[in-house]
Amino acid sequence: MGIDKVLKPLEDGEMDSLFILPLRIIPLETPALRTARLIKNVRLRSVVELFSNVEGTGSGQVEVEALPKLFGWPDDKIHPDFLVVRKLALLPSYDIYSLRISLRQQGISVSSSEALRLSPEKNAELTSYMGLFTRPLIHEIYGDENVNIQSFDDVIALFRDPDIQKAKQNLQRMADKLHLNLSDVPRFIEDYGDIFLSLSYYRQCLDKLEPIISDFLGSMYDIRNNWQLKQDANLLRTCEMIESSVNGLMANITGRFENFDRSTKDMWANISAERFKKVKELIESYHTSIGGILCALTVKMNAWARMFPKKLSGGPVKRGEFIMSEMKQGFESIKKAEDDAPMLAGLN
Asked: What is the pLDDT of residue 2?
């Protein structure tokens, strides 16, 4: 008998998370809110988490609409913090790339210009993913030279002070193609790194999700073939809806990544400032839709992994009950977000 693999929820630090927004990064007036977090619950509703895991007390969550009563805000006018938190609660994802766009669109400021950045630990995790994008860049400048790269900071350092004459010549050629001064190329490299770091971040989120989604979809088969549950037409319809939605969302996101890959290859075929700008705008235009879908799927699959950490945990009946009580809630909003996303485009 094989070992029953344990599913673990996907957890990241606050600024690396898809579904957690630490309110300390937002300039709010209420001290208790500045130490709280907005989180997405299993039904994909944003709630204010005032405390978490304090001496075994669990998580203290409050509905956004309950804040005025909780903090004793006056009834005759809307408190400015209430307006801000309401807007934040409606955002589809709390990953930093979606937030950069959504906060700007909503006119919400952050406490620091450095607030919306991934942690150093997450950056280190994404180094292997970034290789897909850094290799063509390094080859363009250094050719077949053997250069040691451990992080994207190392890439930037290569271009700040290239120590090979051929590299300096190639760097000048790139600057000419981009219509930049040579001294401005490192800034271009940083922009390049940031936009492709976002793709690496989303790819990693997707890769981490796949084992849990595979287990979840496998349960659909067990439910359909259970002698008791296959008589429940409502459950079977719900399972079919969720399975179709998950498969469709995964295929759509995968298709977008493939499109981004093609656009990146096209960019390097004839690099120019305009072509890079188009690739950058193409990727950024999908941040909120990809972030929103991955956020929703991660929250749902985390709930599943906590409830059923092993293949035989709970059994088909308990899993069916959980699907009807928790998993199905909010799937329509995910589908709507996908329908509202811009049409997939490429680099012309």
From this structure: 43
